[in-house]
Amino acid sequence: MNATRDTLRPVREATRTDRLLAALGGLVAAYVSLAVADLVASRVRPEASPVVAVGGAVVDRTPAVLKDWAIRTFGEDDKAVLQLGILLLLALLAVGIGLLALRRRVLGSAAVGAFGVLGALAAVTRPDSESAVDAVPSLVGAAAGALLLYVLMGRLLAPRPGAVIETGVGSGVGSAPDAGSEGVPGAGTRAARADRRSFLLVAATTGLAATGAAALGRAAGSPAEENAAASRAALRLPRPASPAPPLPAGARLAVPGISPFTTPNRDFYRVDTALVVPKVNADRWRLRLHGAGVREELTLTLRDLMARRTVERDITLACVSNEVGGPYVGNARWLGVPLAELLREAGVRPPSEGGPADQLVARSVDGMTIGTPVEDVMDGRDALLAFGMNGEPLPFEHGFPVRMVVPGLFGYVSACKWIESIELTTFDAYDAYWVPRGWAAEAPVKTQSRIDTPRPFGRPAAGTVMVAGVAWAQHRGIRRVEVRVDDGPWQEARLAAEDTRDTWRQWTYPWTATPGRHTLTVRATDGTGATQPERRTKTMPDGAQGWHSVVVTVEGGA
Predict the structure, then answer these.
(1) To bridge 257 with a disulfide, which of 207, 227, 453, 490 should be the other Cys (CB 3.0-4.6 Å)?
(2) Which of 460, 502, 506 is nearest to 485 (CA)?
(3) What would the pLDDT profile of 308-326 be if each residue is shown by its tens digit?
(4) Whole-number Å distance between alpha carbons of 190 and 186
C-alpha cells in the first residue's frame, strides 16, 4: 500500500466516543486559539482581537435593515449579541474541524491556521488598523490552537495493541482488536481508555491555562488603555467663557417615572458600530482640519482646543434608529469650543457665502465617517467640538477625548465620537458611512413626543393618574403637547418651562382614570407650528415619525 497517513493510526471505523472526543478537541482548540489571541491583543491593541476584527467586518457588511432590526430588538446589547453569534458559528466550525482532524490530523490543524489567517486579514484591513502588528493576535492564537489540535488528535489516535497499522509502505495485521500484542485479552480496550484519559487531561489542562492567562490579560489591561485612562483622569476641564444659562424655574418636573431633564452619563444612550470602545490617549490625540475652502491645514491638540474660547450648553441628542416612543434620546450639558469659529479662522465659508464645500466629513479613530451640512454647522447654532459632558471629561463610551455635537441633527449626520479628522468636501464628491447603506445624507431631527408614565400595560388605580413624558424638536423647540384618551378629544398638557429650543421639554397631564382598558396617545407641536403626523413610519431612511401611545388597564371601582 503506497499511502502516507498524517500519523500512525489504527485502520478501523471511528467509534462514537472517538467522534465526540474529536468534536470536543475542535472546540477546545478553538477556545484556546481565541483565548491566546485575546491575551496577545490585550498587549498589542484590543481592537486587533480576531472576534472584534471579524465582528467589525461583519457589521460593515450587514444590510442597514438588519442593523436597524438588531438595534430595535436587542437595544444597546446588539454588539454582545453579534459577538455571541460569531462565537456560536465558530463553535460549529470548530466541531467540524475536530471531526476532520479525526481522519486527517494535519489537515485539521491547517484548518485552524487558515481561520487565523482570515482573522489576521480582517484585523489589518480594518479602517482603524495602525500597522501589520494587528495581525499578530490572530496568528499567534491560530498557531496555539493548531498545535493543540495536533497534539490532542495524537493522544486520541495513538496506535493501540492489535491494530492494523499503515506505515506508508505495506501493511501488517496484528491480533484481534481486543487482544494485546502478546495475546493479553482486553489490552486494546485498556489502551483506548488510557488514550482518552490522556486526551482529556491535555484538553482540560490547556483550556484552564488559556482561561487563566486570558483573564489575567483582561484584568491587567493593555498599556495603551491604561495610558488613555490615566490621561482622562488627569484632565482638568477649563471654566467656560460662556456658561450655560441658568435652568429656568419649572424646567424640571418632579413626577415619578418621568425622564430626568438631564440624563446622567451612565444612562445616556449609546448607538455606534464599535465592538470595542476606543480608548484614546488625550496626550497623543490630534485633530486634523483640511479640505476644500480651508486656507491652511490645521492640526490641533486637546490642549490647543481647551485654550480656545469654551462654551457650555444644554443640548438634546437623538439617534435616527429611535423608533416612536424609543429610548435613544438624551439631554446633557456639553462643554467645548464652537466649531463654526474654528472653521472661519481656517478660512471656511458656508455655501450661502460662496464657500466651495457643502459637507463636513468627520472621521473617527475607528474609521467611522459622518457627513454634516456645512451650512447647518455655521448658521449660528451651538455646534460644538465637545470634550466635557455633565461636568466631567467625556466618558470613553461617549467619545473621549473629543466629539461633535450639533443640535437639530440626528447623531448619524452630526455626532461623531472619537473624532480625529474634519474634511471639507461636497455631498456629490463623498458619501459618508451610512449613506451607501440606505440612510439619507441629510437628516434634521423630527418632532417627537413620548409617554414615560404610566408604562405600557401598566395597571394604575382609578382616580387621578399623572400622565407624563418628554417631547423634543431640537433647534425648533416645542410649543405644545396634547394627550388623548381612547378616541376622545385632544387635551393640552402642561409643559415644563423651556430651557432652550435645543433641549427637550417635560410635560404632564392629570388624567381622571376610570376602570377598564384605555389607550393614551400623545402628540407635539414644534416651534414652527408643525404638529407631529399621525401615521407611523420606519426609522429608515431619515428617522421615524408618528404618535406614541400606550395601553393601560385601570383597576378599581365597583
Answers:
(1) 453
(2) 460
(3) 999 999 999 999 999 999 9
(4) 6
Q: What is d(CA 231, CA 236) in angstroms, rounded to the nearest whole number?
A: 10
Of all residues in the chain, the percent with pLDDT exceeding 90 is: 70
The predicted model gives 262-267 an average pLDDT of: 97
User: Each residue of 347-369: b (16+ CB within 10 Å) or e?
Assistant: ebebbeeebebbbbbbbbbbebb
Looking at this protein, which amino acid is placed at residue 552? Answer: V
The beta-strand segments (E) located in 168-255 are 171-172
Q: How far apart are CA 393 and CA 438, in angstroms?
A: 34
**Quick check: helix, strand or coil at residue 355?**
coil
Residue 67 gets the label, from left (phi > 0), alpha (psi -120 to 50) or beta, of alpha
- What is the three-class DSSP state of 433? coil
Contact 515, 556 (CB under 8 A): yes
**In angstroms, rounded to a whole number, what is the distance separating the alpha carbons of residues 184 and 180?**
5
Burial 308-344 (b: 16+ CB within 10 A, else e): bebbbbbbbbbbbbbbbbbebbbbbbbbbbbbbebbe
Q: Which of 507, 548, 481, 520 has its CA nearest to residue 255?
A: 507
Phi, psi of 142 (to 5 degrees): -65, -40
Q: How far, in Å, CA of 234 to CA of 229, rounded?
A: 9
Cα 331 to Cα 499: distance, rounded to the nearest angstrom: 11
What global pTM score does this model have? 0.83
